[in-house]
Write a structure and sequence with these properties.
With 314 residues, this protein is of the alpha/beta class. It has a single domain, classed as 3-Layer(aba) Sandwich (Rossmann fold), CATH 3.40.50.12710. The protein is 37% helix and 23% strand. It is built from 11 helices and 18 strands. The strands form 4 sheets. Strands 2, 3, 4, 5, 11, 15, 16, 17 and 18 form a 9-stranded mixed beta sheet that branches. Strand 3, helix 6 and strand 4 form a beta-alpha-beta unit. It is globular and about 60 Å long. It binds S-adenosyl-L-homocysteine. S-adenosyl-L-homocysteine binds next to helix 2 and helix 3.
Length: 314
């Protein structure tokens, strides 16, 4: 395409690469390219389920609420969260926004009754309990050097960037997704928990990265065969959230501790004494600032009639 039509933007490159990447494999876990929080420990999805249940109850247990996940991976988080929601008396219909046929297959094996959608715009007209974990980071960014947009060209048979210099990123695709979620919440009520690696305040810099086989790789190497992501600018998402409240951004470790992961760790260890060390290690991976605890952030949107979910203010 580049040879025929000329250099393409980073945004287009990232879109084309990730479309092929996710459509052609299950990238998660030890045998894949990267491991996500729900694949590390059941406690991650359980704490999310508890936060959703608590907020739903405080909202007055509104009828008709649905569980929604954007980019649900293997469906592991949904399984863990829905188990906790059921204990709180809520068995909501499950709606997944997922474009990858391979991952839809994995999700179907675990959640046969779910409904699948291509985009947030197709979600049912109902109050949402929505989760997006490591979804926004896979949506494409644009890169700018001054007022010029960075592009990918072909030179001597290899891909290369067209420009050199200090980079600024933005993402109309992510902002459009945040807007669509917010519009839905404003109209039908509910909450959205957005969890991703990124920063609370907009800042300059090149954060585009490629991961393959659990190691960083050259972003222009093996297009479509490695995971391309960029840091999520939570400030930009909050600005896009018209008509709903956006919470402060909290580090994942802090948020899980505030929700009570310490108590859940103890209970799980008591039930599985043979896995004590493993369970302690899982909590560390999720919460320790040197592991996922600080780099990953959490932010929630909530409709005006719903309370702020737990863990964002003390
Ligand atoms: N949330 C899961 C998986 C994260 S990987 C977990 O935490 O384990 C990113 C997920 O988003 C995958 O399920 C991928 O197929 C999906 N995805 C990527 N781009 C998408 C898009 N444009 N629309 C819908 N889903 C997308």
């Amino acid at each position: 395409m580049i040879r025929a039509e000329g250099p393409i933007t980073v945004e287009r490159y990232m879109t084309l690469c990730n479309d092929h990447y996710y459509a052609s494999r299950d990238p998660l876990g030890a045998a894949g390219d990267f491991t996500t929080a729900p694949e590390i420990s059941q406690m991650f999805g359980e704490m999310i389920g508890a936060a959703l249940a608590d907020c739903w109850l405080r909202a007055g247990a509104p009828a008709g609420a649905v569980y929604v996940e954007l980019g649900p991976g293997r469906g592991t988080l949904a399984g863990d969260a829905l188990r906790v929601l059921a204990k709180a008396g809520l068995r909501p219909p499950v709606h997944f926004v997922e474009t990858s046929p391979v991952l839809r297959g994995e999700q179907h094996a675990r959640m046969p009754d779910a409904r699948w959608h291509q985009s947030v715009d197709d979600l049912p007209q109902a109050p949402l309990l929505l989760i997006a974990n490591e979804f926004f980071d896979a949506l494409p960014v644009r890169q700018w050097i001054g007022d010029d947009e960075q592009r990918v060209a072909v030179e001597n048979g290899a891909l290369r960037f067209t420009l050199d210099g200090p980079i600024r990123e933005d993402s109309p695709t992510r902002e459009a997704a945040a807007k669509a979620i917010a519009a839905h919440l404003a109209r039908h009520g509910g909450i959205a928990l957005l969890i991703d690696y990124g920063h609370a305040r907009s800042s300059d810099g090149d954060t585009l990265q490629a991961v393959r086989g659990h190691a960083f790789a050259d972003v222009l190497a093996n297009p479509g065969e490695q995971d391309l992501t960029a840091h999520v600018d939570f400030e930009a998402l909050a600005k896009a959230a018209d008509g709903v409240a956006a919470t402060p951004v909290v580090a994942q470790g802090e948020w899980l501790e505030r929700l009570g992961i310490a108590a859940r760790t103890l209970a799980l260890k008591a039930n599985h004494p043979e896995r004590e060390d493993e369970i302690a290690a899982e909590r560390r991976r999720l919460c320790d600032p040197r592991e996922m605890g600080e780099l990953f952030k959490v932010m929630a949107f909530h409709s005006r009639a719903w309370p702020q979910p737990a863990g964002f203010a003390i």
